[in-house]
Design a protein that fits this description.
Helix content: 40-55%
Radius of gyration: 17 Å
Largest sheet: 7 strands, mixed
Shape: globular
Strand order of the largest sheet: 1-3-2-4-5-6-7
Order of helices and strands: EEHEHEHEHHHHEHEHH
Number of strands: 7
CATH architecture: 3-Layer(aba) Sandwich
Length: 236
């Protein structure tokens, strides 16, 4: 499916893939405004999010990668700097595995590269947090307004302890294009995994950002943006 997409600016294409339950216009706000001065900024709503309506998320990552490919082809874009966080980063990784020829540079954050020993415990904490979202009328009302599809389907699918694509993420170590892995110092399993993967591949650069957690681009927007710009300029 061709994704509902916002396109601004002129120059080399840079694609921002939003986090779970956000949209192309509600995430990466600081970065989109900054890069819009010198790049063509492409901000799609991933399937089931925002205006990209679908209730088919059974093969979410593979289908989302195909969606992005179709969307870029529709926009007549051949190469991109691809940026994603959390759910968007997982889609970016799947896209890079399926369509490596389109990637100029890849920048990811907010992911767990290697399955932690306490994964079941971490997953249980996530499920509890997501249940609170469902039970909050205020938060549920916000997401109802934001999405044309039933956003609750993502929370239901997230209850499966095997939903996380660790097998795909581990393949980052084989990427041959410039890859930037940004992590917040507050997330130990993210920083440890990123360090291990970077030691396996000289094409992977890591940046551990202080005073930041899972969402580095919102916790430290200026620092994140400066690092991303430096990486893209040097990654050509």
């Amino acid at each position: 499916m061709i994704l509902h997409t916002n396109v601004t600016g002129n120059g080399e294409p840079i694609v921002f893939l939003h986090t779970g339950l956000q949209t192309g216009l509600t995430d990466f706000i600081f970065q989109r405004e900054y890069f819009g001065n010198t790049y063509q900024v492409i901000s799609p709503d991933l399937r089931g999010h925002g205006q990209s309506k679908t209730n088919n998320i059974q093969n979410f990552f593979e289908d989302s990668a195909k969606d992005l490919s179709e969307t870029l082809a529709h926009l007549n874009i051949k190469n991109v700097h691809l940026v994603g966080c959390s759910l968007g980063a997982l889609v970016a990784i799947k896209f890079a595995l399926m369509f490596p020829e389109i990637i100029s540079t890849l920048s990811i954050s907010g992911i767990t590269p290697l399955k932690p020993e306490n994964w079941l415990e971490l997953h249980e904490q996530d499920v509890k947090g997501q249940a609170e979202v469902l039970n909050s009328k205020e938060i549920a009302g916000y997401f109802d307004q934001l999405h044309t599809s039933d956003w609750r389907q993502f929370i239901y699918s997230g209850k499966d302890e095997n939903w996380y694509p660790f097998e795909d993420v581990a393949k980052i170590s084989g990427f041959t294009f410039p890859t930037l892995f940004m992590v917040g110092e507050d997330k130990a399993h993210e920083t440890i995994g990123a360090t291990i993967l970077s030691n396996r591949n000289k094409n992977i650069h890591i940046a551990i950002v202080p005073f930041a957690g899972h969402l580095v681009h919102t916790d430290q927007p200026q620092v994140y943006t400066n690092i991303l710009e430096t990486f893209i300029n040097k990654g050509h």
